[in-house]
Amino acid sequence: MDFSKIDTYIFDLDSTLWFWDKLIPGAKSVLKKLRWLNKDMFFVTNNTIESRRGIADRLRKFGIKVNVEEVINAGIVIGHYIKENNGTALALNIGTEIDLRDAGVKVKDKPPVDFVVVTEDWDFDYEQLTLAVDAVDKGGKLLTSIMGRKWQVGKKMIPGVGCWVKAVEFAANAKAKCLGKPSAYMRKVVKRMLKDPKKSVFVGDEIETDIEFGKKMGCKTILVKTGRGNDKGKVKPDLVLNSVKDMLRYL
């Protein structure tokens, strides 16, 4: 892969640049070098613990220069989808609620609504489950980011959003539509922000949600081995590195 021909760098976040509460060693240096080289950058994540604005703030607290518009999380993508479908929504997560409102969606606190959005929420409880099921039973279509089982926070693997989405699916006898990576809708949202996909590279730690996502947009891809994924799969990355910090030798 010829890095001299790349003008846009797209990064996954979880297990690629950070483990949520700390940066992966070398990540800050890579991003600083890319800013110095005047490269375009985007941060594309399924993370919905915080809103897009919250994620941008977290990156800044780590000393990374970033604009909110450079962050594309599953919450804002879900917001665009609901807005395009002229729908109202119930959101169980305050971060996602902020994303939906930022996208221009009318958010309600009780049914009936057109869409019921269940995303990552560490405070998910029986009351929220009951509210979500009631909203689906009254006609709301169930949306989420991804059916993830676990993700890494610090040194621990913790339950992912799929755990509570499954609870809502089971109780409401419904199926959630996933709009995070690697969905076609999220690809559409990200791709329209790129100058030229052929001059862009997607950097991530999982074959299915990152490398395949980047390939389908027409981008070059880099797989880093700091996550739970591996380099075994139908889709092959253009480059495999132990960590994002190894990009420095190519820049």
Question: If you had to describe this structure to a student in words, what would you say it looks like?
Answer:
By secondary structure, the chain is of the alpha/beta class. The protein folds into two domains: 3-46 and 182-250, HAD superfamily/HAD-like (Rossmann fold); 81-178, Rossmann fold, CATH 3.40.50.1000. It has helices spanning 27-36, 52-61, 74-84, 94-102, 126-137, 162-172, 184-191, 207-216; strands spanning 8-11, 40-45, 71-73, 88-91, 106-107, 115-117, 141-144, 150-153, 156-159, 177-178, 200-204, 220-224, 239-241. Strands 3-2-1-11-12-13 form a six-stranded parallel β-sheet. Strands 5-4-6-7-10 form a five-stranded parallel β-sheet, sandwiched between helices. Strand 2 (40-45), helix 2 (52-61) and strand 3 (71-73) form a beta-alpha-beta unit. Helix 3 (74-84) packs across helix 4 (94-102) and helix 5 (126-137) packs across helix 6 (162-172). The chain starts with 7 loop residues before the first strand and ends in a 10-residue tail after the last strand. The model has no long low-confidence stretch (mean pLDDT 94).
Descriptive keywords:
Rossmann fold, 32% helix, 251 residues, globular, five-stranded parallel sheet, alpha/beta, six-stranded parallel sheet
How would you name the oligomeric state of the polypeptide chains in this document? single chain
CATH class of the largest domain: Alpha Beta
- CATH architecture term of the largest domain: 3-Layer(aba) Sandwich
Radius of gyration: 18 Å
Describe the biggest sheet? 6 strands, parallel
SSE run:
EHEHEHEHEEHEEEHEHEHEE
Poorly predicted regions are none
Q: Bin the helical content.
A: 25-40%
What is the CATH superfamily classification of the largest domain?
A: HAD superfamily/HAD-like
Distance between the termini: 12 Å
CATH topology of the largest domain: Rossmann fold
SS summary, helix count: 8
Number of strands: 13
**Strand order in the sheet with the most strands:** 3-2-1-11-12-13
Portion in beta strands: 15-25%
The number of distinct structural domains comes to 2
* Secondary structure category: alpha/beta
Mean pLDDT: 94
